[in-house]
Amino acid sequence: MSNEALFTYTLRLADDLLILSHRLGEWCGHGPVLEEDIALTNRALDHIGEARNLLTYAGEVEGKGRTEDDLAFLRNERQFLNTKLVEQPNGDYAHTIVRSFLFDAYHLPLAEALLKSSDAQLAAIAGKAVKEAQYHLRHSNDWLIRFGDGTEESHQRAQIALDNLWTFTGDLFTQDEVHQAMVKAGVAPDLTKIKATFDATVDKVLSEATLKRPVDGFMASGGRQGKHGEQLGFILAEMQYLQRAYPGATW
Amino acid sequence: MSDTTKREALFQAKVDSEQKIEPKDWMPEKYRKNLIRQISQHAHSEVVGMLPEGNWISRAPSLKRKAILLAKVQDEAGHGLYLYSAAETLGTSREQTIDDLLSGKAKYSSIFNYPTLTWADIGAVGWLVDGAAIMNQVMLCRTSYGPYARAMVRICKEESFHQRQGYEIMAVLAKGSPEQKEMAQDALNRWWWPSLMMFGPTDANSPHSAESMKWKIKRQSNDELRQTFIDRTVQQAEVIGLTIPDPDLKWNEATQHYDWGAIDWAEFNSVVAGNGPCNKERLAARNKAHNDGAWVREAAMAYAAKKAERKAA
Ligand SMILES: [Fe+2]
Ligand SMILES: [Fe+2]
Ligand SMILES: [Fe+2]
After folding, report:
1. pTM summary value
2. Nearest-CA distance A151 → chain B (Å)
3. Which of B96, B165, B194, B282 is the most buried (most CB within 10 A)?
């Protein structure tokens, strides 16, 4: 197993959380009800916390002295390795909840599997993440059920969000050579197993929510290779602005 | 003595002997109204205050700062919730209170009608705005109305953390590059006077003050609190090498306090009247969040009703 593969894999894990946290932070002060401002911020804080642990570790694995901030603020669009799902705009609250639900349904079994990673540090980070991920999935699945089984409008909005975002779940489960090397080394789980748990969660929640599972059509990919949608550039432009404008400054 | 006079005398005796007034106790109608106005204004300030600070979450310059800022703005949402609950104990509904904010009928602290233009403003807001708020809130921990006092005790702990974080942002900028130091000084220049205005009009011109003091809703006057804040903050600015933008500021040996220059009350009145730099944006943002969220709240209620029905069946 090369350090480079482990570095890439750790960045993939980190970038999902960093970018999703950024998106959720955009809601702060604009939520549909004050309790949800608090809940979304909670999630944003959990995600950024896990992202920081992973980025710090990625810097150590790489061994070139890069810090969490170097990796977050000084990489460019093509060097970010998050899935396309998490960079999708917030949209209405249904889009935000569905995006989180799809991510949570993947993130929880992933974190559980990483507990058994041969990489002690990734296993330790997952140890803290599992409890949080359980709470996240409960929060997003509760809202999805409320929407699906709430009013006609909320049902419709949830179904539209699901139909719009479904294609991006493809990106969550692609396994390239880097991933396969990680599986072989016992670092990462085989994603077909994660996908089975994901499918079961999605089917159970959607049936309770009386929503239709979209048919797998064209499924997006490329995020793990740094081929993103146009939105990511704007996220980075905003997120990295101060570090780029004042190189080397301490904050 | 009439019944009301007797009750009023009893009420005042209770206040004078430092017993807390609780929701079920009898209270003069004006006391109730005064408190509803003050607590809901306070709640609205917490919620509107999330906007200028939330404005920098996406641009925070490090992951640590971003996490701290997220947590801070989240605290303010929590403060809003405690305070809306405290207001509800006086017989108002949260819906009505929020509607009054959205329609522009209710006020919130005018300080939040100023924009956060640079990252240093996040430091200045924590240091000065939370710092000024604490002066008021520490006093309110001993306010005569029980639920308000208890909400304040929880809030104060978090506010002092906010103040320290803001000051630390300023301290780091002040010893950073010349550009960073300039950013910090500029933020102090813009936020200083509005922060002093947060304590409200001078005692001579403060419409609700005398009654509030008699009922121990307030325990120190606007001018006393303002003086304490100035004395403390001038020293903090000195420590980090920033200059308070007041040429008349000087230590007074006789009073053992700082003397300071004249506050521009015309500006204060104009911002209160709705003509600050961001009044329209703030109210528009709150209205947009409320309107966009209407279907979400309706869905939650509809689902809860269905669930209750199924349980009953
Ligand atoms: Fe505050
Ligand atoms: Fe607060
Ligand atoms: Fe605060």
Report:
1. 0.96
2. 5
3. B194
